[in-house]
Amino acid sequence: MPKSSTARVPASRVPSAPAPAPARPVRKAPAAPAAERRTAARVHDPSGHRNEVLLAGRVTAEPAVRELPSGDHLITWRISITRPTAEQRPNQPADPITCVSFQAIMEEVTRGWRIGDTVQISGSLRRRFWRSPSGSSSVIEVEVRAAQRLADADPPPGAPAGPPQPAAPPDGPGPTDHQPS
């Protein structure tokens, strides 16, 4: 086996390199739960674009179903979202938002909704075009994927808060009634 030789380089010829900076710890954002990652992969496209809407407000126009010329059913309703006090304009304290859905299940979900009910919806912002007698028209709406009623409408002023109570006790003796002996 050949002997390897190492030549020593004089210290004057060794280039001096700056000492490496101490490594900084890399901070990573906390990992999203698995369900959230699956949802993100399904909802977002690889370009990073995102169109998600989550709103909660009061129903201001009850859901209505109409059949389009294509045969599809369109469910339409409107909700109003009160703006935070700092963001309110003098004549517009709330934002009215038109909501639509082409999903048949949404007919069932929204069937019992009444004006004043508090609801939550999630979906995507859409611009829809159609031809009308006056020419082309368009509207921006929220196309709803999921919805739920959070609370029933407040009862009208003067109405009882709970279920109706009988005005008089029922006929016959009750627990506090005494029968003559």
From TrEMBL:
Keywords: DNA-binding. InterPro entries: NA-bd_OB-fold (IPR012340), Primosome_PriB/ssb (IPR000424). Residues 7-16 have a biased composition (Low complexity). Residues 154-173 have a biased composition (Pro residues). It comes from the Bacteria. Pfam families: SSB (PF00436). The keyword DNA-binding applies. Residues 35-51 have a biased composition (Basic and acidic residues). This is Single-stranded DNA-binding protein. Residues 1-51, 136-181 are annotated as: Disordered. It comes from Murinocardiopsis flavida. GO terms for molecular function: single-stranded DNA binding. The keyword Oxidoreductase does not apply.
